[in-house]
Amino acid sequence: MARIVYSMLTSLDGYIARSNGDIGLPVPEAELHQHFNDMMRQASAVLAGRRMYETMRFWDSPERETGATEVERDFAHAWRETPKIVFSTTLRQVGLNARLVDGDAEDAVRSLKAQADGLVILGGADLAASLARAGLIDEYRLYMHPVVLGGGKPYFESGLSLALTPLGTQSLPQGVTLLRYAPAG
């Protein structure tokens, strides 16, 4: 059975992006980037909403293979190799190694969990909120940067209520602290 892990970089005050959509968080340097590369290589699939998918399409560019640093080239390769399931009612097509789902996300993820194995990375706050309400997320990973954005797009949707059990913390490069939680009960 697949394990759905919602994983995002956040500010100390819990935002994944500024109000204007700008990420506003420090760019991962090589050592921190390698952590994300390793996680992407472990993933059997990536789940993303439209906005997250469009942001990550940056890594589909062939230039990412030649013009970037070694760690960025490695991530681009891992990103392209990992199957992606994109949930959107507005997109009409997606790129290579991606499948578009415009129907019920909860049903699609329930089916994926039952049929697939391994780590499935979930990115995007809106999709995560829907899947959290349905009890489909197995783990929450908050990568807390030592910055305060003061507002914007929160990691957890406003009004979403969850009881969580701590799974552990880890200190990472650039002053980032990884906080891991599972749904309680």
Number of strands: 10
Return the CATH topology.
Dihydrofolate Reductase, subunit A
CATH class call:
Alpha Beta
Order of helices and strands: EEHEHHHEEHEHEEEE
SS-based structural class? alpha/beta
* CATH architecture annotation: 3-Layer(aba) Sandwich
**DSSP helix fraction:** 25-40%
Q: Count the helices. How many? A: 6
Per CATH, the superfamily is Dihydrofolate Reductase, subunit A
Summarize the main sheet.
8 strands, mixed
General shape: globular
- Strand proportion: 25-35%
Beginning-to-end CA distance, first to last residue? 18 Å
Question: What low-confidence regions span 5 or more consecutive residues with pLDDT below 50?
Answer: none
Radius of gyration: 16 Å
Domains (count)? 1
Largest beta sheet: strand ordering: 5-4-3-6-1-7-10-9
Mean pLDDT: 91
Protein name: Dihydrofolate reductase
Pfam families: RibD_C
Organism: Mesorhizobium australicum (strain HAMBI 3006 / LMG 24608 / WSM2073)
GO biological process, one term: riboflavin biosynthetic process
